[in-house]
Amino acid sequence: MSTLTIPESVPAAFEDAEQLRKAFSGWGTNEGLIISILGHRTAAQRRQIRQAYSDVFGEDLLKALDKELTHDFEKAVLLWVLDPAERDAVLAYDSARRWGPGDPVLIEIASARSSEELFAVRRAYHARYKRSIEEDVAFHAKGDFRRLLVPLLTAHRYEGSEVNLRLANSEAKVLHEKIGDKAFADDEIIRILTTRSKAQLLATFNAYHNDFGNPINKDLKSDPKDEFLSALRAITKCITCPEKYFEKTIRLALNKMGTDEGAVTRVITTRAEVDMKPIKELYYKRNSVPLPRAIKKDTGGHYEDFLLTLVGED
Amino acid sequence: MSTLTIPESVPAAFEDAEQLRKAFSGWGTNEGLIISILGHRTAAQRRQIRQAYSDVFGEDLLKALDKELTHDFEKAVLLWVLDPAERDAVLAYDSARRWGPGDPVLIEIASARSSEELFAVRRAYHARYKRSIEEDVAFHAKGDFRRLLVPLLTAHRYEGSEVNLRLANSEAKVLHEKIGDKAFADDEIIRILTTRSKAQLLATFNAYHNDFGNPINKDLKSDPKDEFLSALRAITKCITCPEKYFEKTIRLALNKMGTDEGAVTRVITTRAEVDMKPIKELYYKRNSVPLPRAIKKDTGGHYEDFLLTLVGED
């Protein structure tokens, strides 16, 4: 469900590396050439190019890109060239260090990745920052958010499809009681959302809807400005339908007075190879405007070209 | 620092498997033969034997052992034959399901293993029980113990040797303040103990000792019967000097009115290939009796023979 287009015959990694070197040399930088290569290679191919670049020219490709590019285009390309786990580690680090209750990045990384992917992020965090992700998050986040984010980020959820329906019913009841009491940060809500498998949570949310009449996310919207409630809603959405969650994130980022480029870049670089196709379809359904057209309207220059390369045509 | 003795020339795994099959067949079971094989093979060799047994005889070696052996001897051999991560998963499962505040098993597994070893346990737990370890622990443990055990078991501590001395000083101060206020289950104590790297915690405990005059564990002993305090002490000991912790565990298990075979078996099967040599040395220093002699005094039969094989001679 990727929106990437890969050429039928992909050049060898060292040829791509040499083309990139050419794009950096001489007068100015050939951004078009950079986009035409890196925007049409899979994560595994980009990793090989990075390796080849370092082997041939004795320099990290990321360093070279950092010198040549600027602004939003630079940020997007650098994130894109990173391995997915390393990219998430970078995003998580930035988010943890300047953490605020409205920041959804840690929730996305903890909830919209598989258990093994999340663990790879934690390993990459060690390698890059000489610390653990939970160490930084527990240090910077406070109170109820810490109580929610640390178990969320350190979970290794079971990934099988087995579901215990009796448990789903009883935990739906627990959730309903706590939400009814407005005890949103109750230990039991946090325990259920942060430890149960995604299949089990889906069953629990279905039981909630069936037994109590509302989808759980509707009941978690009693105060739309409460940031802890937003965090809980983001978790349930990232678990049950990440495409919908990301469609909304990019919609709000584009519709903002002054586009939120950080969010646009994050969603596109992290989802292009995962589920950008359904995100694009949902976007069109919800906004009656194709996502590429919306991106064109709100961005410009090489940044625009690069994003459009990643999300593909209308 | 293992106490295992491995023969100079180890038979091929399929030969060991055939010998074991012989030990099971005919009248009665040849326990001596079983001990002479399995008690003198490394974890990797035992894994190969288990694989060979299954290939040749179409049966899991564990099942066969389960049929042939009984009581404490059976429990010890079964734990021993399991891969270390699987063995820990079994111990953790039993402990989580019948969890009580005095049970140290989850703390040992979370604190006396490396980060990668602990993660391997979590993977083995998924495979074996179709659930996550944190799911079971969060469900069964309550209150402050849950708040302590879940982050402890889900941590993936940084393992490098880098230490931030300023942080060590400031967190030693935080620990001292909270302990002084008898706020033992304070969020900050839990955060520090469950997220910081072992190297960093060592520096913090040293700063604590230097700045406030007592080792932290002494200050955590204000009420020797308080089980939460025991848990905190077990964590600091498993992190700073696991050999000492396990020496004490086996000492108390042997000295008990009615030996605690569960604890003896657990310590010996989990530590024989790790640090049983220093544990044995510490045991002799502390008790003026060699550990093998103490084991002889308190156990009997094939169980005794097997334990002595694993810990080696005086």
TrEMBL record, chains A, B:
Gene3D superfamilies: Annexin (1.10.220.10)
UniProt-listed InterPro entries: Annexin, Annexin_repeat, Annexin_repeat_CS, Annexin_sf, AnnexinD_plant
Keyword vocabulary terms for this entry: Annexin, Calcium, Calcium/phospholipid-binding, Metal-binding, Repeat
Listed transmembrane segments: none
MF terms in GO: calcium ion binding; calcium-dependent phospholipid binding; phosphatidylserine binding
Sequence positions that bind Ca(2+) 3: 298
UniProt entry tagged with the keyword Calcium: yes
Pfam families, per the entry: Annexin (PF00191)
GO cellular component, one term: cytoplasm
Biological processes, Gene Ontology terms: response to cold; response to heat; response to salt stress; response to water deprivation
Residues involved in Ca(2+) 1 binding: 24, 26, 28, 68, 256, 258, 299, 304
Family (UniProt): Belongs to the annexin family.
Domain note: A pair of annexin repeats may form one binding site for calcium and phospholipid.
The protein, known as: Annexin
Organism whose genome encodes this protein: Apostasia shenzhenica
Gene: ANN1
